[in-house]
Amino acid sequence: MSASVAASVPSMQCFIILGLPIIKEGDDIASLVKSLFDFQDGDVLCLASTIVAKSEGRFRELEGYHPTDRAVEIARNVGKDPRFVQAVLDESTEVLLDQPFLLVVTRFGHVGVNAGIDQSNVGDARILLLPEDPGRSAKRLRTELGKDCAVIITDTCGRPFRAGVAGVAIGWAGIAALRDWRGVQDLHGKALEITLEAIVDEIAAAANLLMGEAGDGTPAVVFRGLKYPSGGGDSVFMAKDKDVIRPRLKR
Ligand code: GDP
Ligand code: MN
Ligand code: MN
């Protein structure tokens, strides 16, 4: 055994669930994953938002959108179909950037380019909206799993100030979004003052790494052995009145 292995401890296990079909509207994702994986209490199930959205019938035809003048103007800035821009606006409560890409706040509080509407892995000319309320979806899926597990719904997103995309959590249940380290002592006995750790995003990023982005067909990942704070009701979506960046994006 090498020295580095001898000096390590096992921490968590990661499982990629294989064998999920192309998901259609009405598919029962909880039953599907349960038929392929033997869940234990404490497991964390991560699901790509794409399959949750598909099962919830969030497909839309571009023909169904009738762009307003504003959508037409934004479409020129961002180089997109005005009907697509209208779909994004319909899913949004606020536009933060309307060029060179469309960055919005979704109805459920997540900030994302194009409101997370996907045109890849959809399979035809339709677009796929994010789940209407991913937190509610996560809660339902957790109940349907029938175990004391956590469920995190992920999406691949760009990040400000950093190149490249990564997975983030857009809905979760059975797990607190944030781990509060405040008051915990550091290595030298000094109490931490402000550290809130966005654990659902950290887990989502790891899940996204295992899911892949293209034709892998692996939208479900399970983590076992991870210690996480239970509960919920908290959020990684920055409250508008606490956000110092958002107002500066407004022209
Ligand atoms: P997003 O990050 O939620 O937007 O989802 P992606 O489109 O990046 O897909 C994430 C993973 O799920 C990839 O491995 C895809 O191949 C896979 N995936 C997407 N849709 C389906 C589906 O309907 N069935 C299966 N089995 N895999 C899918
Ligand atoms: Mn996506
Ligand atoms: Mn992705």
Protein model, in words:
This protein has 8 helices and 12 strands. The chain has 251 residues and is α+β, with helices and mostly antiparallel strands. 27% of the residues lie in helices and 23% in strands. The strands form 4 sheets. It has a 5-stranded mixed sheet with strand order 1-12-2-8-9. A 3-stranded antiparallel sheet has the order 4-5-6, with helices on one face. A two-stranded antiparallel sheet has the order 3-7. It is globular, with a radius of gyration of 20 Å. It has 2 domains: 3-58 and 133-238, 60s Ribosomal Protein L30, Chain: A (2-Layer Sandwich), CATH 3.30.1330; 59-129, CofE-like domain (CofE-like fold), CATH 3.90.1660. It has helices at residues 3-6, 29-36, 49-55, 69-78, 82-90, 134-145, 199-211, 246-249; strands spanning 13-16, 44-48, 59-60, 92-97, 103-106, 111-113, 127-128, 150-159, 162-173, 179-180, 196-197, 220-224. The structure holds guanosine-5'-diphosphate and manganese (II) ion (2 copies). Guanosine-5'-diphosphate is lined by residues 20, 22-23, 48-51, 54, 118, 120-121, 155-156, 211-213, 215-219.
**Which outline best applies?**
globular
Rg calc: 20 Å
- CATH fold title of the largest domain: 60s Ribosomal Protein L30, Chain: A
Strand percentage? 15-25%
Mean pLDDT over all positions: 93
